[in-house]
């Protein structure tokens, strides 16, 4: 009997310990938040919302192939968790720069998600020669007023590149007639989309049979829009402090050649690395500026970097 009592007492003690540990896991602390993220992992089939749209243009989700393609992109982008969390983090940093420029050109706000799928909101480099967050080709950049050379490449200048993207999208919308087709044309070109529409005798993106990349393009944009707009719905857990934010900067006007960016940076209490982080369009350790052009260089405010 004593043995039974000891066993029961031991089981009771274990139960109390388990309850204590469970209570600690639910406590809203940073440490337990991290444990919860690890221990609560599950994979679920997703319900495709019935009213998805791009730029106010509805997706025909009652069509079986459209539904399945949308379901695929939601699944792929929901369960690529590391990439998804990075998108949330970077969006907090870069969307406030992109959004007002889209609004200035009367481009629907949904196009900020096009930048997400183009580059992951990084200064990406494509094998074809596209560069920057908006993946602009050299000719397109030059045609729209960007300086593109080995010394200065303004495709890496987020504000200026966003303006070029807006001009391109407005032209596409004017030629093709819808924002959805304009988005597809950002991937395949205006002439490419026009040719597909003509050859297949249709007028809608969702009626086109396209190659893998362009065929997924709008679906990927809408999937990222849906996920980034509804993080909790798709299982993404984070706090505001987990997201990235912009470092405040001030502008320095330069109209002359700069022979040494290391020395230039040190004049403002930063180093070469920090200067290039905030001005990725400066491609070399110097600024040639033989024409005396007026450049604006961003300098972070004092105190945001511990520079020795």
Automatic annotation (TrEMBL):
Domain (Transglycosylase SLT) ranges: 104-203
Superkingdom, taxonomy of origin: Bacteria
Biological source species: Mariniflexile soesokkakense
The name this protein goes by in its record: Lytic transglycosylase domain-containing protein
CDD domains with a match to the protein in the record: MltD-like
SUPFAM superfamilies: Lysozyme-like
PANTHER family (UniProt xref): MEMBRANE-BOUND LYTIC MUREIN TRANSGLYCOSYLASE C (PTHR37423:SF2), SOLUBLE LYTIC MUREIN TRANSGLYCOSYLASE-RELATED (PTHR37423)
InterPro entries: Lysozyme-like_dom_sf, Transglycosylase_SLT_dom_1
């Amino acid at each position: 009997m004593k043995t039974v009592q000891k066993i029961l007492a031991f089981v009771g003690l274990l139960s109390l310990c388990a309850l204590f540990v469970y209570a600690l896991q639910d406590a809203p602390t940073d440490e337990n938040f991290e444990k919860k993220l690890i221990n609560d992992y599950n994979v679920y089939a997703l319900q495709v919302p019935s009213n998805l749209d791009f730029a106010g243009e509805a997706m025909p989700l009652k069509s079986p192939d459209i539904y399945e393609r949308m379901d695929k992109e939601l699944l792929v982008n929901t369960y690529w968790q590391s990439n998804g969390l990075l998108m949330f983090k970077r969006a907090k940093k870069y969307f406030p720069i992109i959004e007002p420029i889209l609004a200035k050109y009367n481009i629907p706000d949904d196009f900020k998600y096009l930048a997400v799928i183009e580059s992951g909101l990084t200064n990406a480099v494509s094998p074809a020669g596209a560069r920057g967050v908006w993946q602009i080709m050299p000719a397109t950049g030059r045609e729209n007023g960007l300086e593109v050379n080995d010394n200065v490449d303004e495709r890496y200048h987020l504000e200026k590149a966003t303006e070029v993207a807006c001009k391109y999208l407005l032209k596409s919308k004017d030629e093709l007639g819808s924002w959805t087709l304009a988005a597809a044309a950002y991937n395949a070109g205006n002439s490419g989309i026009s040719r597909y529409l003509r050859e297949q005798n249709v007028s809608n993106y969702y009626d086109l049979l396209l190659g893998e990349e362009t065929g997924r393009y709008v679906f990927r944009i809408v999937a990222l829009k849906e996920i980034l707009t509804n993080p909790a719905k798709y299982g993404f857990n984070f706090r505001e402090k987990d997201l990235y934010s912009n470092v405040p900067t001030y502008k320095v006007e330069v109209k002359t050649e700069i022979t040494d960016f290391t020395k230039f940076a040190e004049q403002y209490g930063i180093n070469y690395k920090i200067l290039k982080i905030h001005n990725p369009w400066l491609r070399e350790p110097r600024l040639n500026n033989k024409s005396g052009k007026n450049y604006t260089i961003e300098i972070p405010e004092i105190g945001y970097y511990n520079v020795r």
